[in-house]
Specification:
Blueprint (H helix, E strand, L loop, with lengths): L5 H12 L2 E4 L7 E4 L14 H16 L19 H29 L4 H7 L7 H14 L1 H10 L3 H6 L1 H7 L2 H27 L5 H14 L3 H9 L5 H29 L2 H14 L26 H32 L15
Antiparallel strand pairs: 1-2
């Protein structure tokens, strides 16, 4: 009898190719690929590289192109992408595009791979929730930002706002904050991780190559910001504009590598959504310069003639101490991140084994 289920298809395929197939003990979709070398005589996997590559181009285009079709979202020298009306309209567009892409992916998994409803939810990383995986992934991401967290919490004295929740409320009350920390991370991670990665797992590509390849679509999808920047900053020379876009492409691709790695290792889309939100909030870590508190809203304090130089000397010592502590924590956090990368992403719900 021919295999009819997704698991049975993969079992038959890997038996035919001589590839080692490791199936975890729980009944969920848990296939780890070891030495995924395909022979020309072997049965083909459910999806071809050409078909998946076409979808990998179509999905981002469906995500970005609507921005340029409507006058309410199209960038112009007089209309900023940060205008509330632009943000609201763009969010509506991406919700629709991600919904359409999700429907297409579910249909493909159900028809081309004979996946059951439960298999589809697990492949997409939507079920089970996996609170442990979410917590460990968020902790791993925070380790990389140990220095910046120290700078914000201690040097800039924001820890009180964090405890009271005032900063969170103020941030999410603005459309820019909602875009950067909710709508953007949710829609981008669903599209580039939850939808595209499972489709690639049904191709001849190994999980390791999927980790390296699929984030390139994520990075390329951000290149349209180059056009927006040039349009809204007409007096900026081309060279700095190009360097800015290349830099953005580089760090978005690097984050994509990390997010794809975490998604495959944990099988949890919420984990990568929260990691994305955290990275957007934290920004790029400071790699040089002196660490010091930001200037207060009212401006720097004016010193009188009677003020001695002792206070200035104390401030300089504090700045040196903060800088030293920051860079020590930055390096320590980076080392801890590297040491814990595999441990904190280990999960019985992994979609595949990354080697």
């Amino acid at each position: 009898m021919a295999p009819t289920g997704l698991y049975q298809q993969f079992s038959s395929y890997f038996k035919n190719t001589g590839t080692t197939l490791v199936v975890h003990s729980n009944p969920a979709w848990r296939i780890s690929l070891i030495a995924p070398n395909f022979s020309e005589e072997a049965a083909l996997p459910p999806l071809s590289l050409a078909f998946t590559g076409l979808l990998s181009v179509a999905y981002p285009l469906l995500y970005v192109l609507p921005f340029y079709l409507s006058p309410t979202t199209r960038p112009s020298p007089t209309l900023s992408r940060d205008a509330p009306s632009v943000i609201r309209a763009r969010i509506r567009f991406v919700y629709v595009s991600v919904t359409l892409s999700t429907i297409a992916t579910v249909y493909i998994l159900a028809t081309r791979a004979n996946a059951s409803n439960l298999d589809i939810l697990r492949l997409l990383g939507w079920y089970p929730i996996g609170i442990v995986e979410v917590s460990k992934s968020l902790l791993l991401t925070a380790l990389l930002f140990t220095g910046p967290l120290f700078e914000r919490a201690v040097v800039e004295s924001r820890w009180r706002d964090w405890i009271q929740g005032r900063a969170l409320h103020e941030t999410l009350s603005s459309w820019i904050g909602w875009r950067n920390y909710v709508a953007g991370p949710v829609t981008e991670e669903i599209l580039f991780r939850s939808l595209l990665v499972p489709l690639h797992l049904l191709t001849p590509l190994s999980p390791t190559r999927i980790v390296l390849l699929t984030p390139l679509y994520f990075g390329i999808a951000h290149i349209h910001h180059f056009y927006e920047f040039v349009l809204t900053h007409p007096h900026t020379p081309w060279a700095p504009s190009i360097m800015r876009s290349l830099f953005q492409f580089t760090y978005t691709t690097m984050f994509g590598w990390y997010a794809t790695f975490v998604f495959i290792r944990t099988g949890n889309v919420i984990a990568v959504i929260l990691a994305h939100t955290f990275c957007n909030w934290a920004g790029l870590p400071r790699l040089w310069g002196r660490v010091e508190p930001g200037v207060a809203i009212g401006g720097p304090a004016v010193r009188g003639k009677e003020d001695s130089g002792s206070e200035l000397g104390k401030e300089r010592r504090d700045h040196w101490s903060w800088s030293f502590a920051y860079y020590v924590l930055l390096v320590t956090g980076a080392v801890a991140f590297q040491q814990c990368l595999w441990t904190l992403t280990e999960s019985p719900r992994a979609l595949a084994k990354v080697v």
